Amino acid sequence: MVQAWYMDKSADDPRRPHRGEPARPVGLEQLRGLGVLYWKLDADKYENDPELEKIRKERNYSWTDVITICKDKLPNYEEKIKMFYEEHLHLDDEIRYILDGSGYFDVRDKEDRWIRIFMEKGDMITLPAGIYHRFTLDEKNYVKAMRLFVGDPVWTAYNRPADHFEARGQYLEFLAQTA
Questions:
Q1: Distance of CA 122 to CAs 52, 93, 110, Å?
Q2: Residue 18 assigned as binding residue
């Protein structure tokens, strides 16, 4: 089951959990209200998983690759980690399936507060186009993830402020409808 919580305001090492005090857990229903989707799958059989294939077919996730994020495997590791942690949005959904290791996706709630989502082996998440978010490894400094896309991959991140994009406007309309 997904683990998510409101973050503290500490500027300490982003790889730490940063649980707010008092603890304020966030459930799947609240994440769905932000447009965030979550599945728990069997990462050991990702290459031949009928459940993954069903999700891909239903959601038109036609393109995939696998990325390993650690010092030994990712070129320009330090630069990329900083880039992933910059608050940004995409014009398309961001879909990630954790095959090994762990890390955190942080998303903004409707009041612009950070929610931290802990992702570990078997967790798959979809962040909607237009949501402000960021990613970091946890203190284990390792994650292997499948990236999924509808159609050809688009890697462009737009750092905040990026409110002028149509995807952001559509996302804000979605939030207004779920209020």
A1: 11, 19, 27
A2: no
DSSP letter (8 states) at residue 83: H
Check the CA dihedral 102-27-43-79 and report its sign.
Answer: negative
User: How does the average pLDDT of the chain come out, rounded?
Assistant: 97
- CA dihedral in degrees (25, 84, 157, 58; nearest 10)? -60
Query: Locate tokens 């995807």: which residue?
Result: 167
pTM of the model: 0.97
The SS3 call for residue 129 is: coil
- At residue 145, what is the residue type? A
For residue 163, the 8-state DSSP code is T
Dihedral angle sign, alpha carbons of residues 17, 18, 23, 27: negative
CB 114 within 8 A of CB 134: no
What residue type is 32 in one-letter code?
A: R
**Ligand-binding site membership of 164 (annotated):** no
Ranges of the chain whose pLDDT falls below 50: none
Could you tell me the CA-to-CA distances from 108 to 34, 71, 79, 142 in Å, in that order? Answer: 8, 28, 23, 24
89 closest CA partner among 167, 146, 145, 148: 167
